[in-house]
């Protein structure tokens, strides 16, 4: 249909690489090599994004508190996070005497695994989705739940009261909020008519879901942001690692890179929540299209999809940071009240509304 | 009001107060930042005049100060920070007059209470806002406030 979208399409390049590799080696080896390259790229991107997000968090937090944030290490403190990451890398990983060693060392890997698996589902660019199949959204929700296991294991195996309380709170919260997260997604799946991530993005070529689905889409968007914030264990839902009461919550006893994994996963979960929100509600890599304005759509197509994706994702990251640095932490009973007495009824009503609107053709 | 109306109005009230909070915080976000980048901003640094950084004895252009060596500041000081050494001088009319020989001040034990300044009947000493007082040895904190060869104003 429109030339520039196809011009930026990555799929032909990927297919060309695959066919030329298959020309010189068996297909299994070619697939293995491609998988290896993609894995390295994903992990690198993961680390770089974590650094960018930590820097952004520190700066945005500082600005919300009328401070400047890191300013000394490098220009505007740009090298501060690199220094911190290097410090974490060279620190010792402590083995606790009375901890359950196997589970204690397994937990950070579970958390980071869930995070990376979800991370690779994001639609970076036209034809650049890494894990992309017909139940993509379902897969995202499923693998992001592995994180709860990691957090509960970390809290239990550390053999400390702080970690256990933190993990129990976190478990109760994350399992509850997955419901409204899933139902907000379900409303959007009902709107798009597909669960595949690339399908959802392509269905937004004539307008993003948040405009197409109007009222129920906005409700789902807000509910998703609240539930996603809770899933990412971030304030105002950060009672799992409530610094003032629990020192650091479930990762109190971790040190070195094992702590680093929790820390990375926390920040990347923020990005993943934002990326999924950008995909489902704001069209993923799809440029801003307004049905009918072809000239405008053409201009928007000149901006590559990856720019659109990161722009939208970081916009939502900023929104979530804004929320985090504005509101005080909720108590566990308040968090569960919010979920079970407010978000779930709203989600159920919203799902019904969306389906009714969709059936009667009242969405765009 | 039935409970369902209460539920809805409570939720709306909550959303409204959350939005007010977000409006407040985004205003702070764009406000001018208050962080002082200290060693770099020395030229533009503003320290209040009232700030008590260090005790000084002002001298005028003739190297004269107001101190009559009465020792009230030394008596007022709760820490024994000030030591006034006075000399005695015979005047023509036969009276003796105290004059200041040495005014020693230990910055290391001063608690900046300003009792000495308040006790002084002649405004001979005052606090200035010079706060960069760090040195490497304690002996450098022992200051002599009267300048070499200074005398009291007539």
Number of helices of chain B: 3
Kindly report the CATH topology of the domain at 51-152 in chain B. Alpha-Beta Plaits
Number of strands of chain A: 0
Would you list the SSEs of chain B in sequence order as H and E? HEEHEEHEEE
List the helices and strands of chain A in order: HHHHHHHHHHHHHHHH
Mean pLDDT of chain B: 88
The dominant shape of chain A is globular
Number of strands of chain B: 7
Summed up, the domain count of chain A is 1
Head-to-tail CA distance between termini of chain A: 20 Å
Strand order of the largest sheet of chain B: 3-4-6
CATH class of the domain at 51-152 in chain B: Alpha Beta
Count of individual helical segments of chain A: 16
What percent strand of chain B?
Answer: 15-25%
Fraction of residues in H or I helices of chain A = 55-70%
From the spread of the alpha carbons, the general shape of chain B counts as elongated
Major beta sheet of chain A, specifics?
A: none
Describe this structure in words.
The complex is a heterodimer of chains A (364) and B (154). With 364 residues, chain A is mainly alpha-helical. Chain A is 70% helix and 0% strand. Chain A has one domain (94-359). Chain A has helices spanning 3-7, 11-24, 27-64, 80-89, 101-119, 136-144, 146-157, 161-192, 197-202, 209-212, 214-231, 243-246, 256-282, 294-301, 305-324, 332-359. In chain A, helix 3 crosses helix 13 and helix 5 runs antiparallel to helix 6. Chain B is an alpha+beta fold. Chain B has a domain at 51-152: Alpha-Beta Plaits (2-Layer Sandwich). Chain B has 3 helices and 7 strands; from the N terminus they run αββαββαβββ. Chain B has helices at 3-29, 72-76, 115-119; strands spanning 54-56, 64-65, 82-90, 96-106, 126-128, 142-144, 151-152. In chain B, the strands form 3 sheets. Chain B has a 3-stranded antiparallel β-sheet, with no helix packed on it. In chain B, a hairpin with a 5-residue loop joins strand 3 (82-90) and strand 4. Chain B is elongated and about 100 Å long. The N and C termini of chain B lie far apart (86 Å). The model of chain B has no long low-confidence stretch (mean pLDDT 88). The interface between A and B is medium-sized, with 15 and 14 residues.
């Amino acid at each position: 249909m429109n030339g520039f979208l196809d011009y930026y399409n990555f799929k032909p390049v990927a297919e060309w690489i695959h066919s030329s590799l298959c020309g010189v080696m068996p297909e299994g080896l070619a697939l293995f090599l491609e998988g290896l390259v993609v894995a390295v790229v994903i992990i690198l991107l993961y680390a770089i994004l974590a650094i960018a997000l930590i820097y952004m968090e520190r700066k945005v937090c500082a600005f919300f508190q009328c401070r400047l944030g890191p300013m000394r290490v490098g220009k505007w403190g740009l090298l501060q996070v690199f220094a911190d990451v290097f410090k974490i890398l060279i620190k010792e990983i402590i083995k606790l005497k009375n901890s359950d060693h196997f589970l204690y060392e397994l937990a950070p890997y579970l958390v980071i695994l869930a995070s990376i698996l979800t991370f690779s589902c994001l639609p970076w660019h036209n034809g650049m989705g890494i894990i992309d199949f017909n139940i993509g959204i379902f897969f995202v929700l499923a693998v992001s739940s592995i994180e709860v296991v990691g957090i509960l294991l970390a809290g239990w195996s550390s053999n400390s009261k702080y970690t256990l309380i933190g993990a129990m709170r976190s478990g109760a919260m994350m399992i509850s909020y997955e419901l409204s997260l899933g139902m907000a997604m379900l409303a959007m799946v009902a709107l798009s008519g597909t669960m595949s991530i690339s399908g959802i993005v392509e269905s937004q070529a004539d307008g993003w879901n948040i405009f197409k689905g109007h009222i129920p889409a906005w409700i789902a968007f807000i509910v998703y942001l609240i539930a996603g914030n809770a899933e990412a264990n971030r304030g105002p839902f950060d009672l799992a690692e409530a610094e003032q009461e629990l020192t650091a919550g479930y990762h109190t006893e971790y040190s070195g890179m094992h702590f680093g994994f929790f820390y990375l996963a926390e920040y990347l979960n923020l990005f993943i929540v934002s990326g999924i929100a950008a995909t489902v509600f704001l069209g993923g890599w799809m440029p801003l299209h307004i049905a009918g304005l072809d000239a405008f759509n053409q201009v928007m197509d000149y901006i590559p999809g990856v720019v659109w994706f990161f722009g939208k994702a970081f916009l939502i990251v900023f929104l979530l940071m804004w929320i985090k640095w504005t509101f005080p932490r909720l108590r566990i009973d308040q968090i569960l009240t919010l979920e079970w007495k407010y978000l779930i009824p709203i989600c159920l009503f919203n799902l019904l509304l969306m389906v009714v609107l969709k059936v009667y053709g009242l969405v765009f | 009001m039935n409970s369902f109306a209460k539920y809805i109005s409570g939720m709306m009230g909550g959303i409204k107060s959350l939005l007010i909070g977000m409006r407040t915080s985004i205003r702070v976000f764009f406000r001018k930042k208050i962080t002082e980048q200290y060693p770099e901003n020395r030229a533009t640094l503003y320290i209040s005049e009232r700030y008590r950084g260090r005790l000084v004895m002002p001298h005028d252009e003739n190297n004269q100060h107001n101190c009559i060596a009465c020792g009230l500041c030394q008596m007022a000081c709760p820490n024994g920070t000030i030591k006034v050494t006075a000399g005695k001088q015979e005047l023509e009319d036969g009276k003796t007059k105290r004059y200041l020989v040495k005014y020693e001040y230990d910055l290391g034990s001063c608690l900046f209470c300003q009792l000495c300044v308040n006790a002084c009947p002649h405004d001979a000493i005052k606090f200035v806002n010079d706060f960069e007082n760090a040195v490497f040895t304690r002996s450098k904190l022992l200051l002599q406030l009267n300048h070499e060869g200074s005398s009291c104003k007539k």
